[in-house]
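To assess whether the prediction recovers the assembly geometry, we first specified each molecular entity separately, as shown.
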Amino acid sequence: MKQLVDKYAKKLVAAGLAESGAPLVGGLDAELVWNQRSPDSRELGKVFNKLNINSLLFSKPAEPYCSLIEYLVSCADDAIYPGDCETRTFMHDLPVVRTFDADEIARALKQRKSVIIPGRGIITWGRVSPEQAFIFYSSVCFACFVKFFADYLNDSRAGVVSEEQQRVFDTVFKHLEPLPEEPPVLMQGPYQSEAEVYRALSEAGRLTVEYHLVDSFFGNISYLYNNTLYISQTTSSLDELEGCIDPCPLDGSSCTSITASSEFTAHREVILRTGMKGVLHGHPRFSVIISMDCEKEICEFKGQCHIKCPEKRFFEDIPIVPGEVGTGPHGLCHTLPPAMKGHRGVIVYGHGLFTVARDDFNEAFANLLAIERGCRDEYFKRVGRHR
Amino acid sequence: MNGWNGTILHIDLSKKIHHFEHLDSEIYKTWIGGKGLAGYYLHPHIMRSWDDPEMPVIFMAGPLVGTASPTSGRMCIMSRSPLTGTVGDCSVGGSLGTELKKAGLDGIIITGKSDHLSGIEITDKSVAIRDADDFAGMKTGPLYERLKRNGAVAVVGPAAENNVLFSSIMVDDSYAAGRNGIGLVFAAKNLKYLTVKGSGHVAVHDSEGLKRAREDIFRLIASSPVLFGEQGIAYYGTGALYDLMDSRRMMPTANFKRTHFDMASRMNAAAYKEKYAPKRAGCKGCHILCKKVGQEGDHIPEFETMSHFSALLENEDIEVVTRANALCNEMGMDTISAAATLACFSEISGERLSGYRILSLLEEIGQGEGMGRELGQGSYRYAVSKGRSELSFSVKKQELPAYDPRGAYGMALAYATSTRGGCHLRAYPISHEILRKPVATDRFSFAGKARIIKIEEDLNAVVDSLTACKFVFFASSLEEYARAFTTVTGVETTAQDLLKIGERIYYNERIMNAQNGFTSKDDDLPPRFFEEAGSSGTDIEVKPLNREEFLQVRANYYKIRGLDENGVPKEEKAAELGLKWEQP
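The predicted structure of the complete assembly is given in tokenized form:
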């Protein structure tokens, strides 16, 4: 357990979600262990006594998350309600409590996967592993980032940006790291063996994380070789794909895809429809924000844009389509594949960006980067129009 | 009351009388329903022999049953297990739970013993005890056909009438309350069948809120590759797990001598799909529809049955697996115990069983003839009678399912600590050790598993009390089901509040088992798992379990569960959970 709490404390820092030394991660089996000594562990130890969990994570987020979360909290009563896909599907809402008190914290965590304490940070839990707490923490940061920037754009357009909101925006802006100018040089394809496929997927996955085109976990990747789709497993981390890739035969001869990414069907359909060999999917933040930006004021599907948006929407040449995770009636497996034909990428509303690989991941990666850069530029252009 | 009907039906077969008990809402809040409430009623009787006429057979539905809450068409059947001597319970699907709730009941408790073979027919609050002598020896399928006009149907087959210790109760023809020999307790009351038909509806506190909770759950189910992925359970049945178990090198093969079956790729769910082109079917109120029925009406075996009637017996003929499954269902026998008992027999006798031999032995077991009389006592008693107890792959005398514990260490602990003997469903660690939900854990490590197993046991005790389907928890969590519970019942709760009740339910079972002398000596695994390696493969080494590490994780589990070093409940922990217990 000590190994696990140490691992996820470090990973939080490496992902840029916390400053070094900030994360406090506790793991409980027969004994409670922490990744570091901290005066906060005493109060959090009491939380363990109140919940049937095996791990707790507490950290002050790094910038730019810290400032924007503090701002969102200052506008919220008892919870923040982001509209991105991750929150809608898994987190529901992000509760806020005002005191660092075990009873209050436990009360919130009994109902939700996270709690934000203004001025202190974010607390999340895991039932089977500190990894869950890490994912929830990362989701809170991502969801708040998207909400802050999406709200700011809407408020700019409506001319209702407050002084405080502007001050925070300017602060946050300073902390935004520029996107890398050039994509990396990846393994050249077409790949000639299963081993090469595994190496190529791992390499592209790891670099997608390093280029901040996903927040650690979010995303998936696949490649077709010998009529078998090699695809990252569900809940696998793109920067740790070794041993987490499922070979799924497309002839229907086995059911190995049940541990594959929940987007297996979408990947397969994209490949079959486009004749491409691979799919790369990340959740670059400004692509997600732009996908949620709609100027239409009156719409019968207001509040249901993620599943029912009837418009043909584009960012430049990139289609923006509705669709939920998975294969349900509103699943993105129905909307993404037809939209991908003839395009270098597709953004799924509030969710993320998919690009395709012809022979290897060089072009897919370059497109992921270019589209995200384009969305980021577009965001600030739209903001600029209203300032 | 909302969600609950507030009424329990008691039937005394000796006196042929019945009465309705109107239960206080606090008892419902304390035990939820389903398995929790069944345990509450079983506890005072747990030290009786399973065939004591006063030993109850309890049918209990949960508050979500009969409402729009997803996957809540299940119910619990509980008594003392003839096979293990422990608490014996099964979660069963079909329509019985729903009909029971529509009849205005939450549960039925049957005690006494009829002086001749009988059946019980319930229509709303009308209860009739019928003569069933004409049905003696009848197989479950034909009996179901005779009775199905009466609503939901629960029956026992010839196996229960012939004292097979792993007899099941079959609901609606093909839904088995399979484990623990619960069918034998039913038959010990001279009871052949129970039918229930209801015409009412279950009151719900907040229908709009339930609709929202339901949408949240549906969204999660749709995002789950194992449930609704195109190769998931919804389309291939639980057999979708078959390839995975073999590729992970944890498919029990040749009575657990190996963990890889060479013929697996020809015996998998895809092969069944090609051969039978099955349609989707399932429990009332469920949209996952994991049950698969072939074009000719063949019931496609569940994963455990597929695996044990192929790999465990080294059988390479799909048709034999399908017929073995049908035969077990017709006879009313648990497929896991039946196959594992045959595998034990095969290893001890040195006889490699042909397809014909498998089927003929199953027939003999069900009919209580020839070798069947010995094998009908289960693998443990059979192996002991041959002086080879180590070759029974069982825990607390109940045969192990189709997950080799050398390939999933959480499962090793879960098998050992299960309150009903060898069972994968109490903690269901396959969820995180193999299916990566909610996240993946290291399957070849005991690190952290003691607390995980304890929490998951509590969780599944809640699921079986609500009563919902465990599969849905591959995608959803108790957070969403707590909302469903609150919107149905009006009782404010949280996932953590429900887990605390789950802890009480599970501890109550530990107490009942302790009352019957169960201790740490029973929370153990067969020696082969500690002495012999499994079948390693490329990049996967399947070592024997480390005995010291196992004992340490079990000791950690006892500490976390609040048991003493012998696995016996403590008075202070019982009191904390609102239970009574005097430590011996």
